[in-house]
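User: Please predict structures.

Assistant: First:
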Amino acid sequence: MYFKFIKTKDTLLSRYLDGFYIMKKSAVHEDLKYLVFASNRIILSIFKNATLETEGHQLNICGTPDAPFLAFQVFPVQKPLTCTYKGVLNEISFCFKPLGLNHFLERDLKYYFNKALHPFLPFSDYGEVMSRVLEETEEKAIQEQTERYWLSKLKPRNLSLLEMMMVQLQSEGFDNIQQIADNAGISRQHLVRLFETHLCRTPSMFRKIHRFRKTLANRIDLMKKGENLTSLTYESLFYDQSHLIKDFKSFTGMSPKKFFELNRAFDNGLINWVFPD
């Protein structure tokens, strides 16, 4: 298997898109299975000659020579998603910041969210352009073409109020959602609607996932310092260690200790996968 994460180069585009990863699986490799976990980012995946089957939180992608272009999105998932890859596969996945994709779409993000995984063709030329991108072999050309394409679709929106509330939800001292609504001069109901419309999740779930993801990023730094789980608990804004353990079991189905034994992190914790035995 070949995997590489490439950060967005264009300064303007980087405000919305963290980057993309390329993953390739050849025929000689055995079936690939891994788990992905809750994130506030939005992932758009494209495949060359592949079919997709889903059942609950199981996702099976099979390389099929005669299959058409495949594109889908991973909107909010709260339980682990099991991905199984079979056959020859060529994937590119775009990793958007939590509000990032809103600045490219004609409608609010909620409009496109029917379920966690479904075919996603947001523009009339998306399939044609991305099919050509998947034919490219040079990573520099892939980056240039995809960044040029996304910039051509950019329609910046004024989401400053929501951005401000997101910052508060991610900060210490702002545990009360009503307080955040009061500070913004809006009702709690309006705050919830904004989150559901543009992030497809409630404010409380956004905050819970942020803490979980912050823990994954902090883990890398704390491991270098040789610090323990207690340090990780408070670095990641959990109330106590039992709170951290409870959330980890909710999102991963396993304890923090077991998760970190199995976790494989890419790009300083931006991407975290577990490859089961």
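Second:
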Amino acid sequence: AKGLEPRADTQITWGSVLDAEITLSKASGLGFRETFDPVSAVETFEVYAGTDRTQGDGYNGFFGDDIGNLADLVVTQGTSEWKNAAIVGGEGEGTARKVITVSLGGEGDDLRELWVDAKDLSRTYQIAQPDGTYTEATYTDEEYAAALRARGLEKLSEQLRTLSVDAELGQGLMTFGKDYFLGDIVPLKIVRCGLRLSARVSAVRTTYEQSGKTVRGVLSDFTLTKELTG
């Protein structure tokens, strides 16, 4: 409905819907949320893509510790053993073994491969019957490849390179809901670290108190734009 282009043709089994959504979200770079309309009492599952606000028409300003709208930074560094491609081996031996590749992008020196042994994923599976018995079924070649792709995505999601910052995003110069929204990519200037970065607003929590409104955001998917000098 939103006209988004990224698509995933895969199958994820033996897990929760939420876990599957998180895996696909990390792989595609898209976000998801549940929205509720109090007027119609309709709850809607929504997939969204953020806007790049680091330049061009989307630029509305930046967050910086030198201009007072980026404070209380808590930096969490993710895994250093990041991977962006998985080679997944299923059932079989030697040249008869089913092997597929799942890629999140990256070529040449940027390629980081992960081997995934998925022999435990059998081509056959059990289907429960109403009388409590089970019958055996067999995946088609396409269905089995989809199961292997899902395993590859799951393992890659555990190896993604991440850096998250929990920070108070001041509303004086950049206002949530007006200048930026959930999922947007925003520019950051962190003088104390000597860095200019871009980051995605991956979560926002708004707290209303007698003293006013406080917005705290979680920023992820950091990209180094420039190292500050002087």
